[in-house]
Amino acid sequence: MTYVERVLDELKKKNPNEPEFHQAATEILTSLEPVVEKHPEYEANALLERFVEPERVIMFRVPWTDDNGKVHVNKGYRVEFNSAIGPYKGGLRFHPTVNLSIIKFLGFEQILKNSLTGLPIGGGKGGSDFDPKGKSDREVMNFCQSFMTELCRHIGPDTDVPAGDIGVGGREIGYLFGQYKRIRDEHTGVLTGRGLSYGGSLARTEATGYGLVYITEEALKMRGDSFEGKTVVISGSGNVAIYACQKAQQLGANVVAMYDSNGYVYDPEGIKLDIIQDIKEVKRGRIKEYAQRVKSATYTEGCKGIWGIKCDIALPCATQNEIDLESAEKLIANGVKYVSEGANMPSTLDAIDAFQKAGVVFIPAKAANAGGVGVSALEMAQSSQRIFWTFEEVDAKLKNIMVNIYHNMDDAAKEYGYEGNYVMGANIAGFMKVADAMMAHGIV
Ligand code: NDP
After folding, report:
1. Residues 161, 155: contact at Cβ < 8 Å?
2. Which residues approach ligand 1 with their CB closer than 6 A?
3. What pLDDT band is residue 253 in, cutting at 50, 70 and 90?
4. Are 303 and 286 a contacting pair, CB within 8 Å?
5. Which atom of ligand 1 is nearest to the CA of 262?
6. Sheet holding 338-340, edge to edge
C-alpha cells in the first residue's frame, strides 16, 4: 500500500458513514500521489494524516420558534478545517440535506480552493439542516439569530470568516451579521457577502458566476477560441448560475437551458435572464413559470434530462453529484468540449474520468468556482482598511485571480507530467502552499 492509500484507508475506518467526505478525500489525495513521492518528509511528519483531520469540529443545537409559536430544533455545524495559510474561510449552507459528511467534504475542498486564489485564507465550512424554503422572513430571522448566538463564540475577523452558500444569501447574512454585532459589540468583517450598506464588497454577488466564466474564457483563449457563438447549458438558477449566465451572454454565448430542483427549462432562442431573475431572485418562485412566460421555452419535470441537451460548454452550478456517468456520456456523445464546475463537486468521480478520457477540457470546482471566495477575501481586505473599491476595480482583480488560477493549475499539471489534467493541477497547486506552511509550523 502507498502512503496515500494507507491514509485513505484509515480515514474511511475512522470516519464511517461520511460518503461525500470519502469521495472528496479520494479525489484529492489520489492526485497528490506524485507530490508525496517527491517529498518523503511529508510522510515522515504525518502531513497527510494531519491534513485530512479538521483542526476543530463544532456541532450545536439550534432551537427556534415559527410564526405559530411552534418550537423547532435544527443541527448547526462549523468545521474549522485548516488555518495554515490564513483564518478559516468558507460558506454556510442551509439545506435539509446538510450533515457532517457534506460539511467536511466542502471544508476539505475549501482548503485547496482558498489556497489556489493566492490569498491568505484557510479552509472551513458550516451550515445547518434548516430549510429556508417556504419560511417567512421572521422565521428565517429567528433561526439565523439562534444559529449565530452559538456560532459567534467561535468566529472572528482574524479567526474564522463565514460567508453564504446554498440557502444563505443576502437576507440570511444580514440577520446573522446583525446578531453577531449585537452580541459581540463589534462591526468588523466577520462575515462576507454583506450588504453594501454595512461593509459588503461590490461584485461579490456576481463573483462566483463571473469567475467561472473568466476561467473558462482563459481555457478557451489558450486554445484559440472564445465564448462567442457557443451553446451553453447551465444547471441551477441560484446565485452562481444566474451570474454565470449573465457573463456568458455578455461574451456572446447562447445559454439555452437552466434548472431548479424541480425541473429544467429549454429555450433554444436563449435564456431571458431578466425573467429568470424575476422568478428566482424577486419572487423566490419556481423555474417552471419561465415556460409559461416565454413562448420559445419548454419545461420538463426532473433535472437530469438537462444533460441530454446538445451544447459546447456545460456549467453545472447547482449541487454535488448532479452529473453522473450516464449524464457525462450524454454530454460527450453530443460533443461537449468544456465542462467547468460552478457548484462544488457536481461531477461524480466516474463522470470526471469519462470527461478526461474523452478529451473534454474539465475544470474542477476548486479552481472554477474560486472567484466567490476570492472576492470574499477582497471584501475582508476592504473591511480591514475601511475602504471600498469600485465594481470595476473588484471585477478586474477577480479576473486576474481567475487567470492566475488557470495558469497555476495548468503549470502544476505540466510539471508533474499530467498536461491538461486540471484535477491533478488544481489539487497539486493548491496543496503545495498549504503543505509548505504546515511544515513550517511544526507538528501542530
Ligand atoms: P443557491 O441556493 O443560490 O442556488 C442553488 C441552485 O441549485 C438553485 O437553483 C436550487 O434549486 C438548485 N439546487 C439545489 N439543490 C439541488 C438539488 N439537490 N437538485 C437540483 N437542484 C438543486 O446556491 P448557490 O448558487 O450559491 O450555490 C450553488 C453551488 O455553487 C453550490 O454547490 C455551492 O456550494 C457552490 N458555490 C457557491 C458559491 C457562492 O458564492 N454562492 C461559491 C462557490 C461555490 P431550488 O431553487 O429549487 O432550490
Report:
1. yes
2. 164-167, 208, 236-241, 260-262, 303, 317-319, 342-344, 369, 372
3. very high
4. no
5. 47
6. 298-301, 263-266, 254-259, 231-235, 313-316, 338-340, 361-363
